[in-house]
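In response to the reviewer comment on reproducibility (Comment 2.3), we provide here a single inverse folding case reported in full, input and output, so that an independent group could reproduce the run without further information from us. The structure tokens appear first.
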């Protein structure tokens, strides 16, 4: 078996890669519901802006294991990958908002610190939209609105 075959086999057995392969079927029902020139993608939606261009909404769900194993970097990464997704579409990041579930405030703190650091580093506004601190396992959702001209 070649090195490439070995890598393909390893990645093919990954739950995370399997989740990525299921993205299109997961959001397929939304394609029928999308109106007009709205465009849907892996981690984003682009909606026509009446004043011109598009409004971009990017969202990122992080694996629970990532949030649990490295909460500060998971928070930082949530912001970083959203910004990267929007920049790849030609957008300009404006702000990020988040939803965080953790078992307590102590678990939440390093996630918030990572998100705050990334927002500062990338020059975007950050809001703490929703937090639940009685969830048994840590989870994180990050979403952002951007304008594309």
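Designed residues, in position order:
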């Amino acid at each position: 078996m070649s090195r490439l075959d070995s890598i393909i086999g390893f990645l093919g057995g990954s739950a995370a890669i399997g989740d990525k392969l299921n993205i299109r079927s997961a959001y397929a029902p939304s394609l029928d519901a999308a109106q007009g020139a709205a465009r849907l993608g892996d981690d984003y939606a682009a909606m026509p802006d009446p004043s011109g261009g598009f409004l971009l909404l990017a969202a990122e769900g992080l694996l629970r294991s990532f949030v649990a194993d490295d909460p500060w970097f998971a928070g930082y990464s949530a912001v970083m990958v959203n910004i990267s997704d929007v920049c790849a579409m030609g957008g300009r990041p404006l702000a990020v908002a988040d939803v965080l579930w953790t078992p307590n405030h102590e678990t939440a703190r390093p996630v918030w610190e990572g998100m705050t650091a990334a927002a500062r580093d990338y020059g975007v506004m950050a809001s703490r939209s929703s937090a639940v601190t009685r969830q048994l396992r840590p989870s994180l959702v990050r979403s952002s609105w951007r304008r594309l001209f």
